[in-house]
Write a structure and sequence with these properties.
This protein is an alpha/beta fold. It has helices at about 20-30, 40-55, 70-80, 105-130, 155-175, 190-200, 205-215, 220-235, and strands at about 10-15, 35-40, 55-60, 85-90, 135-140, 180-185, 245. Bound molecules: nicotinamide-adenine-dinucleotide.
């Protein structure tokens, strides 16, 4: 069977671990050359070394996606080592947990810098290359939280709602350049981010059971989201743009 991402050159931000790392692995297995951008150098190198050892093509770029100059440097590296990117998965994200009256202004700003502003900064660097290469697919990581008013993390939920709408705006603007832009909205996925969230709770087991029960299919695994990202990156989704793609174990059907 032909590889679904043959001839794709993909950038995955936050690809050192979790959903991003699993996506990097599947993208490469489907024939894409992959650039992993992340601040976590040790895990990023581990991820790309694993892909290369499995016969794929991957490079790691140390990059804080809230820093415009680091983005420029990483973009130049991808261009010179892999070529013009035609897939961009803006996956990097953090979760600030805490009610509105509890979190600090600095936490609020960091939440928006990583989850929203980074998409603006990275996309403005990559779109000119994608346009020149004839088009591509941008996948922006949102969340079920974009549609549910979880009271414990208003900064996070609102940042993900912003990602959904930013993606729609980008989709309409860049359709003429043959660049599709969709948002991906996972349910709760069992990653280190989720485990770190649980560890901050007074009773992690009780909170975990509550979250599992909220999802008709329970919580998901990184691979469940990575396959959705493969679809959005591939030409199989060529008529899809501006869409929030829900892969959320049914929580929004309750
Ligand atoms: N795990 C979930 O339940 C879940 C649900 C819905 C959406 N998401 C979203 O999926 C994405 C990935 O989540 P995950 O669970 O795999 O998290 P994770 O913490 O395991 O991985 C996130 C990666 O992003 C990197 N990162 C963070 N800030 C960065 C920055 N400024 N520059 C570069 N890299 C940075 C981290 O180093 C890490 O490698 C996030 O955007 C998250 O909000 C996760």
């Amino acid at each position: 069977m032909a590889h679904r991402l043959a001839n794709k050159i993909a950038i995955i931000t936050g690809g050192a671990r979790g959903i991003g790392a699993k996506s990097a692995e599947l993208f490469a297995a489907e024939g894409a050359a992959v650039a992993v951008w992340d601040m976590n150098v040790a895990r990023g190198e581990e991820t790309t070394q694993l892909i290369n050892a499995q016969g794929g093509t991957a490079v790691f770029c140390a990059c804080d996606v809230t820093d415009a100059s680091q983005i420029v440097a990483a973009t130049q590296r991808v261009s010179s080592e892999l070529g013009s990117p035609n897939v961009l998965f803006n996956n990097a994200g953090i979760a600030v947990v805490g009610e509105l009256e509890e979190i600090t202004e600095a936490e609020w700003d960091r939440q928006y810098a990583v989850n929203v502003k980074s998409i603006y900064l990275v996309s403005r660097a990559i779109i000119p290359l994608m346009r020149a290469a004839g088009g591509g697919s941008i996948i922006n990581m949102a969340s079920e939280s974009a549609f549910v008013g979880f009271p414990m993390h208003p900064a996070y939920t609102s940042s993900k709602a912003a990602v959904v709408h930013l993606s729609r705006s980008m989709a309409v603007r860049y359709a003429e350049d043959n660049i599709r832009v969709n948002s991906l909205c996972p349910g709760t996925i069992n990653t280190e981010l989720y485990q770190e969230f649980l560890s901050q709770q007074d009773d992690p087991d009780a909170v975990n059971s509550e979250i599992v029960d909220l999802h008709p299919l329970g919580i998901g695994e990184p691979v469940d989201i990575a396959w959705a990202a493969v679809y959005l990156a591939s030409d199989e989704s060529r008529y899809m743009t501006g869409a929030p793609m829900l892969v959320e174990g049914g929580i929004l059907s309750l």
